[in-house]
């Protein structure tokens, strides 16, 4: 009788081990899927620049200080509702022709501007409109 109980216990442990492994594999697959989806979405946001509000948009005054870092500028733009995500804007600026050219000043920007246009204005690109003063 003890032998039967031992075999039943061992079988239960084996079944529990298999169930645990299956649950672990499912969790790993879900995690990998989530990481892949997040990475794809981030890349899509970086390369698919869209204005926050298409059409007329809303004008917003932004002040960029002399000592502002790129990430601080990106956070300011996000807080003002001009860009969707500060990390995305940070990467967009790093990959753009405006990299390292953003200037301090006071700017009148619109929520209808794309991130690239905002970068152009902040870099002093004469072809861009919207600068209210420097």
TrEMBL record:
InterPro entries: MLTG-like. One of its GO terms (molecular function) is lyase activity. Signal peptide: none annotated. Keywords: Cell membrane, Cell wall biogenesis/degradation, Lyase, Membrane, Transmembrane, Transmembrane helix. The keyword Transferase does not apply. GO terms for biological process: cell wall organization. The keyword Signal does not apply. The chain crosses the membrane at residues 12-35. This is Solute-binding protein. The lineage of its organism: Bacteria, Bacillati, Bacillota, Clostridia, Lachnospirales.
């Amino acid at each position: 009788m003890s032998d039967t109980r031992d075999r039943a216990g061992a079988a239960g442990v084996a079944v529990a081990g298999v169930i645990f492994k299956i649950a672990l594999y499912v969790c790993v697959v879900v995690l990998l899927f989530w990481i892949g989806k997040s990475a794809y979405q981030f890349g899509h946001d970086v390369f698919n620049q869209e204005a926050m509000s298409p059409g007329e948009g809303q004008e917003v005054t932004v002040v960029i200080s002399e000592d502002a870092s790129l990430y601080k500028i990106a956070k300011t733009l996000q807080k003002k509702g001009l860009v969707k995500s500060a990390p995305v804007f940070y990467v967009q600026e790093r990959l753009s022709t405006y990299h390292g050219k953003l200037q301090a000043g006071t700017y009148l920007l619109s929520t209808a501007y794309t991130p690239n246009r905002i970068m152009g204005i902040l870099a002093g690109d004469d072809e861009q409109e919207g600068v209210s003063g420097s």
